[in-house]
Amino acid sequence: MNHLDPRSPLVFDTKSLGRRPGSMEQVQRVVEAPADLGTDVIAVPQGAPIDLDLRFESVVEGVLVTGSAKATATGACVRCLDPVEIPLEVRFQELFAYAERTAHHREVASEDDEADEHHLEGDLLDLEPVLRDAMVPALPFQPVCREDCPGLCSECGARLADDPEHHHEVIDPRWSALQSLTADTEEKRN
Q1: Is 77 helix (H, G, I), strand (E, B) or coil?
Q2: Whether 96 contacts 62, CB under 8 Å
Q3: Domain-embedded: residue 6
Q4: pLDDT reading at 81 higher than 80
Q5: How far apart are CA 34 and CA 113, in angstroms?
Q6: pTM for the whole thing?
Q7: Domain extent for 53
C-alpha cells in the first residue's frame, strides 16, 4: 500500500481539525498542477498554478472537503490548430472517511461503491484524485480558439481565417476529360 507524503502539495493534514463533528477549517493554497491533468488536446500543464479555496469540516463519518479550484488549461484549437488558453474553475465536494468507517463500509457496501470511496490515511488526505475527477470532465471536449473559427482548408491546409475568400477549383473527375479539350482549344487560340 502506498503511503501519502505529507510534503506533497495536494496532501492535507487534518490533525488540527480534530474528530469533533462541526469543526471547520478554511485553507487557501496555490499548488502546482500534477502530470496528466487533461487530455491530449487540452490540459492544465504540469507545474502550472492551481488556486485552491477549501473548507474542511469534521463530520461523524470523516472529513468533508468542499472547495473550488481555478487554473488555466492550454491546448490547440481543433479547427485551426492555433494555441488556446481556457480559464477553468470547478467546484467539488467529497467525503474522506475515517479508516474505521471505511472498514465498516466495505463490509456492507457493494463493489461499485468501493471504487468511488475516498479515505483518510491517518490524518492525511490526498486531494489529487478529487481534483482530477472535477477538472478533467470540465475541460472542453473540442476546444476552439473562437466559436466561429473557420479552421483549415481541407485541400491545402491554409488558415481560412487569414483568407476568407480562399477556395480551390474542384472539377468532378467524370468531367476531367473535357477539361483537357478546353485547354487544347485555348492553346490553339493563342
Answers
A1: coil
A2: yes
A3: no
A4: yes
A5: 26
A6: 0.74
A7: 11-138
